[in-house]
Specification:
The protein is α/β, with parallel strands linked by helices and 341 residues long. It has 13 helices and twelve strands. It folds into two domains: 28-141 and 291-327, Response regulator (Rossmann fold, 3-Layer(aba) Sandwich); 143-289, Response regulator (Rossmann fold, 3-Layer(aba) Sandwich), CATH 3.40.50.2300. Helices cover 46% and strands 18% of the residues. A six-stranded parallel sheet has the order 2-1-3-4-5-11, with helices on both faces. It has a four-stranded parallel sheet with strand order 7-6-8-9, sandwiched between helices. A two-stranded antiparallel ribbon has the order 10-12. Bound molecules: beta-D-glucopyranose. Beta-D-glucopyranose is lined by residues 40, 42-43, 122-123, 184, 186, 215, 242, 269-270, 290.
């Protein structure tokens, strides 16, 4: 007994137990996370970072963080039930990667009735829905900026060596667009702003084809295979709304027998580890970092502040009291080492 007391006082003196408060019971924060689809490459990167950072925070602050992840399997009905369960079980805060971003009002109203703050991330609810309650937040990156940065990657290459990009020599950039899920804000904005950046700089462009591949590598490979059969070498640029689809386009080109140095100029978004490898190999000309770690870090800091009832604007940088925006950064061979772990 004496030894236990001595150890206890030594820990208090060393400051390691101060976060436990007077009761000696470790405070617990319970966070329910509802994912649109757990096996999405980018979402699983965010979640890995979230879990690692939560463990680090437990050590640093002497708290216990209970994370419960639920996979919505792309069904809003399933996700609504999962959120209901979190609310019934008195979670302190819920984080929602909403399946259908137009369906947020129902979830916000339920969370409000239960008095549980809700943080949406990656799939942005419409502003009218988010404004229904002051305890509803959104964490993400501004999709238009990712599109602009993709456009700038192509523009820079055009300006430094137009003939390498304009293989037909007709002064017009022929491109195809691999789109993410229909209706996702990143699909709409990245698609629009990538091309606008080129036309705004006075470059003539021609869209050969566009189609959704639902963020997925396999589907993108199938689309690109068809386009290669239809347009062949006429495809000069491939805009992909994310890296998995850019990798699918690369797969199709290489499978068609094209040499790696003959691939069209392919750009993606996310900076996932396999995409960074493709940048190193030169098959992917560039990508745009979608800051998974930054999104996870802010989601954790905001969750803890809301659970503990402290001022959220001291934990994260809030825009309009609701939004946390993480910047995008473009990645090419030149600055690649800064993004590799
Ligand atoms: C990412 C995609 C991901 C999607 C899921 C986007 O921001 O770039 O890779 O599939 O979010 O919602």
């Amino acid at each position: 007994m004496k030894r236990i007391c001595a150890l206890f006082f030594a820990l208090v003196l060393a400051g390691t137990l101060t976060a436990c408060g007077d009761t000696g019971v470790t405070p617990t924060i319970r966070i329910g996370v509802a994912l649109y689809q757990q096996d999405d490459t980018f979402i699983s990167t965010v979640m890995q970072a979230f879990q690692q950072q939560a463990m680090a925070m437990e050590q640093e602050r002497g708290v216990k963080i209970n994370l419960n992840l639920a996979d919505g399997r792309s069904s809003q009905t399933i996700q609504n039930e999962q959120v209901d369960r979190f609310l019934d079980q008195d979670y302190d805060v819920i984080c929602v990667n909403i399946v259908d971003r137009t369906a947020a009002a129902v979830l916000i109203d339920k969370a409000q009735s239960a008095g549980v703050p809700v943080i949406f991330f990656n799939r942005e609810p419409v502003m009218e829905d988010l404004s229904r309650w002051e305890q509803a937040y959104y964490i993400g990156s501004p999709g238009a900026r990712a599109g602009e940065l993709q456009g700038e990657l192509v523009l820079r290459s055009w300006q430094s060596d137009p003939s390498a990009l304009d293989r037909s020599g007709d002064g017009v950039l022929q491109y195809v667009m691999l789109e993410g899920e229909a209706g996702h804000q990143d699909t709409l904005l990245r698609t629009e702003y990538s091309v606008k950046t080129l036309t705004g700089a006075g470059i003539a462009t021609e869209k050969l084809a566009n189609e959704t591949a639902d963020w997925q590598r396999g589907q993108a490979g199938t689309r690109m295979k068809q386009w290669l059969e239809e347009f062949g070498d006429a495809i000069e640029v491939v805009f992909a709304n994310n890296d998995d689809m850019a990798l699918g386009a690369i797969d199709a080109c290489l499978n068609s027998g094209m040499a790696p140095e003959d691939l069209p100029f392919i750009v993606g978004v996310d900076a996932t580890p396999p995409a960074l490898e493709a940048v190193a190999e030169g098959t992917l000309k560039g990508t745009v970092q979608n800051d998974a770690k930054g999104q996870a870090k802010n989601m954790l800091a905001l969750s803890c502040a809301l659970a503990e009832g402290t001022d959220p604007s001291r934990a994260v940088e809030l825009t309009d009291g609701k939004y946390v925006w993480l910047p995008y950064v473009s990645v090419t061979k030149e600055n690649l080492s800064a993004f590799q772990q």
